[in-house]
Amino acid sequence: MDGYKSGSGSYECSFEYFSSLFTEHSIEDLSISFRYFLEHISSIRQKKKLKDIVTSDLRICPPQHISKINSWNSTQKKYQESSFIFDIIQGSFQKYAKEDALTFGSQSITYKQLDLLTLELAQLLRSSGLNGDDIVAVVMDRSIEMVVTILGIIRAGCAYMPLDPNSPKKRIQMILEDSKASLVFCNTQDIIIQHQESNSQDNFYLIECCLSPDPSLNITPDIDSIIDDHELIDLLKNPIIIKNTDLAYVIFTSGSTGQPKGVGNTYGALRNRLLWMQEKYPIGFGDVLLQKTPSTFDVSVWEFFWPFMYGARLHILEPALHGDPYHLYDIMQKENISVVHFVPSILKVFLTCIETFQLPYLKHVISSGESLSWETLELFYQKISQSQLHNLYGPTEAAIDVSSWDCDRNQYDKNISIGSPVSNTQLHILNPDGKTQPIGVPGELYIGGIQLARGYLNNP
Fold first, then answer.
1. pLDDT digits 0-9 by tens, 116-154
2. No. of H helices and E strands in the chain?
3. What distance separates the 2 farthest-apart alpha carbons in the chain?
4. Bridge pairing between strands 313-316 and 100-104
5. C-alpha of 45 from chain center
6. Domains of the chain: which residue ranges?
7. Where is the signal peptide (predicted)?
8. What are phi and psi of 125, to 5 degrees?
């Protein structure tokens, strides 16, 4: 930047820049911010002595930028759907009763069977005295039982908390104690034997799904023993009242920066996220989603619920195979997968290993969890040109994702964006003093809106 005093006594500035690093548009934004900064200093100098001016007095974000940012954050959306996501799922139970809802290997469950199994579990949970905000732990590998259990917990209006059965015993024990989980559901006896010895509560239960001749749940020991004096509640006659602020699920952080913390997300946040996703990437009967994300990562949350809300089928990938690109490709081809999620590093490996792609049914590939590189974006469109790649961003402390960007291979500056905020959510880039940064200037990301988590368990 060069500055000089003109013949008229005014000061003028000019910018020189490398076009390979900056666009004309970004330099224009920078010049607007710089001019506003100078004008703001001038106005302050009329009120304060120079020695009394502190950095918190200064403003560098011009009104034009504030107006744009407010426009981007104008995401208000009033969805007309039912207030409880399971009400929407029940519509699919009726409309697609004979169609496959869930497949795993050679096993399959129709929407009617899924209705009966989740209803049975939900009624048992409610009859045993569990209500909103009660946490039920799910310590299972990917399986039909895992999905049925999670759906049954949500149908009961409780909160599910997924745990990896292969995690260290100490971590699982710590989480169960910290969360004060009312019940712990497992799908292998080995898990119960391994963890019940050191657990002070006798609250571990083994769940098995029986699909023939009639769908039913085998729960060991008999869960009826905890119903006490309650009568079996008929949820069809006594619908559950769910508040938007009730807990829907709890996911514990990795603990890489200290002690793992349980993040509690609400039904209102989950509902908003799922309805936004359907509006953004609509699915329906005939679509097949692949469930391959470990349940302890929040991406799995939309995999568990979104397909059943709109009559699609969910295919569960066998445990430990989500990292095998060749097996993954075979499954995607065999099952006619239309929507799948990849962490960017795994997506790059997948695209590199498979030479020729024939996935005619694949519509959307969702990428999140890490930074997506431009190299991976270009490789994606070279090999899977008929599909759309989407880059989503969101911390565990907000329901799954808070922003999205439809990856554009023709992006002029080859920058990967986290995109714009989802419905009823706001994103702000602030400086250390809590003031809005100009467009294009780095800062700290602040998230607002309905999708914020309710807080950390025992440390709100």
1. 999 999 998 988 888 889 999 999 999 999 999 999 999
2. 12, 21
3. 94
4. parallel
5. 48
6. 2-72, 85-456
7. none
8. -65, -45
